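Batch manifest, entry 17 of 40.
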Amino acid sequence: MQYTCSVAMGPVDQLVDIAKTAEEVGFDNIALPDSLFYMEKQAADYPYTPDGSRMWDEDTPWVDPLIAAGAMGAVTSTLRFYTNVMKLGSRNPLLLARQVGSVANLTNNRFGFGVGIGWAPEEFEWCGVPYAKRGKRVDEMIEVIKLVLAGGMVEFHGDFYDFERLQMSPAPSVPVPFYVGGHTDVALRRAARVGDGWTSAMMTCDQLAETIGKLKALLAENGRADDPYEYQAVCIDKFGVDGHRELAAAGVTDNIVIPWVFDGLGFDAPIEQKKDSMKRFADTYIHSGWQDG
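Output type: structure tokens
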């Protein structure tokens, strides 16, 4: 099982130091969250809290995850980065293809593209994109981005996007993996159809095991039962070495964690405290050898 450190809702000026420390102590990846803006009034419930409220406010810091990946990639050499997840629905696929390809090249293929639709109508409408038909539009966006990133002269004629022959160079030298987020049936079908992996929001171990089982069945339906596939998880009820063993047994291949939160620190804790938490976490889980038995 891999270990990924999430940098959600932390100060922007800590990101480079967190990347350096994560690589130093042995984390596999950094997970980069996405939020465009904070709207004072929300038209829809946030789907991952019991009461639909957001877990952040107008002063919570966010940075564009693709820019963050470039900055953090510049000070590391082995650490990988992935968006967790980037909300595609309010964006343009050709512009995203240019950005994703740039990050992949600048990091020497140490980037994975975690994608979702987006939950807030305001993010769509205020960016000039309709909220209606967002799922079908995102399906087409993924197709466009993959097509362009594969390299060479390409064209596309779909229901939402239409362009004649074009090429973006340089294309990444290896395919950028796509990790699809979402918990609904339609999201899981999308993940099984076009994803190289699936990424969760906050779930219990039992929920993760059930969802991974559904995904494996869907992969088989799509003729992909033997394909390499990542199951990236944010688990809210399994801790300690025994808990991590249970996650691995449930099928989790990548455990997304925030070590300083586990130590009772806030998202805005001082960077030295966060570094200490990362080192303790790595000693307890990454280097303890529990996966060897």
